Amino acid sequence: MKKSLITISVILLASCAQAEPKEPEAEGTPFTNEEVGFSLIVPEGVELLSADHLVPSSTGSIALTVRVDDVSELEEAGLYSKQSAEEVIKNLEKGELGPGLDFVEEKSEKIVSLGTLNAREGMIFGRFEVCDVTFERILVFYPKKDDKTYQVVINLSMPNEKMIPAFPDYFHKDADNCGDELVWIQQAETGENMRIFSKFHHYEVQTNEHSLIKEWNETFEEIKGGIKFN
Fold this sequence. Notes:
By secondary structure, the chain is an alpha+beta fold. The chain has one domain (35-229). The protein contains seven helices and twelve strands. The termini are far apart. Mean pLDDT is 83; it is low at 2-19.
């Protein structure tokens, strides 16, 4: 009888030794889209806004939007048109960027793998006119489910009221066009060859030294790394 107990104990100990440690679960709030069949984790401290909300966040926190559209129902014109989506899909399948998307800074664009499909990643610092200032990171991908192709646009933005004061060398007041607002210093006003968005991306985002940039980069990577498909 004693011999049997010893044998069982040895087996149990061996099983415990062979068990692989579980990866720690990401902290935050789960977000799931059942229609498309994907999920992600909204990290603590990130404000999840409705898909049609204009970023950046009005509360001074990092803001996240997740917009999902059936590609066949996209409008014929606009930043995320049906034609644009179809072109992006073809290029992603070939591992190519293709034409520009939204107002993404060219130097920030790249293709990333989400395991089962490719996605486009990039940063946006302004749209349409000189008075617009924004700090957005976007991830765009096109999953398929039930014979439908969807466009998913994940947008993570930093609040202007924190970012602009942190990088004063990039901003000024353009009274003629923008009143008292602090806006990006345009290339013609600096006399530099490097566009202001490219300069900010090169010297601030890529160096990843400022605490706000680190927070932005790390939060985006955390969200991207937590995307799972059902």
